[in-house]
Amino acid sequence: MPESKGSETQVLTRIKRSIGVFSTLKFVISRVGPLLILLILMFFFSVLSSSFLTVSNLLNITRQSAVNIVLAVGMTLVIIGGGIDLSVGSLLGLSACTGATFVMVLGINPLLGILIVLAIGASMGTVNGVVITKGHIPDFIATLGMMSVARGLALLITGGLPVAGLPSQITWWGIGDLYKVPVPLILAILVSLSGWIILSYTKLGRCDYAIGGNKEAARNAGIDVDISKIKIYAIMGFFCAIGGLIETGRIYSANGLMGEGLELEAIAAVVIGGTNLFGGEGGVFGSIIGALIMGVLSNGLHLLNVSAFWHRYMVGLIIIVVVVIDQLRRRKIIAE
Amino acid sequence: MNKDKIVLKIEKLSKRFPGVQALQSIDFDLKRGEVHVLLGENGAGKSTLVKILSGSLLQDSGTIFLDGEKVNFFSPEEAQNRGIAMVYQELDLIPSISIAENIFLGRYPLKKLFGIIDWRQVYHEAEKIFKENFNLEIDVRREVKRFGVAIQQLTAIARALSQNPKVLILDEPTSALSPLECQQLFKIIRNLKKRGVSIIFISHRLKETFEIGDRVTILRNGEKVNTLLVKDVSEQDLVRMMLGREADKETVREKTSVGDEILRVKDLTKEGMFYKCNLRLYQGEILGITGLMGAGRTEFAKSLFGVLNPDKGEVYIQGRRVKIRSPKDAIRAGIGYLNENRMEGLVPFLSIAGNITLASLNYICKMGLLMKDKEKSISKRFVDELEIHPPELEREVRYFSGGNQQKVALSRWLCNRSKILILDEPTRGIDVGAKEEVFRLMSRLSKEGISIIMISSEMPEVLRMADRILVMHKGRFVAEYKRGEATQEDLLLAAAGGEKNARI
Ligand SMILES: Nc1ncnc2c1ncn2[C@@H]1O[C@H](COP(=O)(O)OP(=O)(O)OP(=O)(O)O)[C@@H](O)[C@H]1O
Ligand SMILES: [Mg+2]
Questions:
Q1: Which of A2, B111, B462, B488 is most buried (CB neighbours < 10 A)?
Q2: A20 contact residues in B (CB cutoff 8 A)
Q3: What is the mean pLDDT of chain B?
Q4: Average pLDDT, stretch A126-152?
């Protein structure tokens, strides 16, 4: 064998070995990646701004991120089941507007109003699930339709005007404190916990993973795919309503355009968090981190007086980087 | 041409997966025009070895020589360009496109003018390949997913053949084929040999080693045990080397007393698949259904299980008429069905514990909550009994070898408390040792009063296990034998339609 060939293969072996090291590194990064990004961002901002790492600012971040966390947790359930929900922003708006209108215009008891908010969210979510499963319509299309329908309804109900002057029993959910802990933070924690319990410790969660991982196999194992999907979308809708409640409190009013664009933020949080967009694998924890990354970014940039436009730019960048890393890891696994 | 010329040589090849040493310093070589058989238990490392050769996995260390030249394949394309074609154990076909497109994927014949794909040519060539090689006329324009595993297997083989390889790697190509197609495949292999093509052949049917093998290499736990000339070894030698100990005695199925009728199928028909099928199944009975590829056995089973909806006919369970429209209905009525294709049953991202208990969620859940310890104890039992390797309950099923995945798929139904089990090719891809275990479990279940319909192309296994055997031919049951009444020849003859000059 000629000498040059030998050295060439030596080089190749070296390349191969470094690919090995690189892929382990990639593996590590993609596992703790989101958390790492979050910590780096926090370090970065606390160096640049003295007001970043203060209790009041951190609580502020949780207040700002609560809605996105709540929606991202729901979106995680949906995406793990192989679905997607584009209507979450609109459902948030619709449930909040309906509740606020009932309270302010019809003058019903605010606590009843809260129940109405929750009921609207859950039932519209159920409608999503039913249309998808019984109508045999792709998740993307059905929820795209719902996105527009719910937004239209919200605008119709409010007549395009904000419903303001809400009683404190309602705004408390967005701005109140319980033993000095912001209520939105408590809600976000409760929703996260229930999302985690559903995925790890319930039959529904197991069915969700199975459906997203291999729908045909799930059906062949006797799982009622339709019922499971409907339940998941109903839970998503319920979480949207909780988000609506928080948002209403935060801005002291409800309006028809509330929650616009939040569906994309939620999906972004889930993607950054490492849940497989095609379903079957992932978890709540990553999505929460994803939502916090976006919250920290917007808060930090705000403190540094950087234009809010940069925020969108940075979020986009992070999504792309995270997904590229994830794809590389996946390709490696599939190849094996 | 030098017959003894070494085409492919491997030195000190090692590969590690997280937690498993899949290959440990393997030496291996392949001569021109030889059939080299790779044997080993489930998880021994056979697939890993050939995947490295075909460029879909990278070794950790070790060298590969092709025609005396050191090579490194970073992708399957590179290996293909050097003349190595592979048929994977888990077929890598695209289900939603046609057979013909799958065969020529990425290498479509182009029209001279404009360089657009010449579809007439694609279909024509694909038809020709099937006709010439397998003596089959099928509609190559139909989507792959509409065919059974056997045709899918042949499609994958056809694709490899169409690459005109000089090294052909076949990873368990016969596990989905019935005797007739196997013979056809062996004919093709012999022809390729004559043309100087070298073949690596993996199978768990030891008899096939003697039928077409020249040399055989045995792997055990990622290490090479030996390479021998096939003519120098006996079947017992092979088993001993694979297991590292003497083989277990074949369990003989005790005569069980058969109870009352549990299932009756009357005139079940699905146009184009099966016609007027009648069947009775008794409590504690093992009923074998055998036949050739495309006879309609799987379609019949899927109709009983509610995956397909039959056009006509009635089904009675314990004398009561039942209407089954979905697998869920079937399971509720006490029927379980192991898919012929394990990938239609397994959820790759789910742990083996999750997969084993997937059809028993009602037993491991209380008020919608999973009882993890119950899940664990149920799945641990099967991991132990069927020796699923590695025995890690939380490991995702996609990281297991083919045979171990099959054991997981099978376990799901063995633990699901069905009264009637339909097992479609239950031993597909399972090694000799574990097969005995499967048979022991089946015997035990039947003794406990569970009735089993065993659909299998492995006629010796059907003859050994079944109390009664039905033979299906072109969608109809054409013969019925009691235990001990039939020989393999009888079954084959009936399966081929009873013609004296059956194509064997
Ligand atoms: N992608 C993977 N990730 C982790 N472990 C793997 C992976 N693929 C295979 N293994 C492990 O490597 C070992 C060898 O697997 P391999 O598929 O080569 O076995 P095999 O001899 O082909 O078995 P079978 O007869 O069941 O097909 C097994 O222990 C398996 O669990
Ligand atoms: Mg294998």
A1: B462
A2: 58, 60
A3: 90
A4: 96
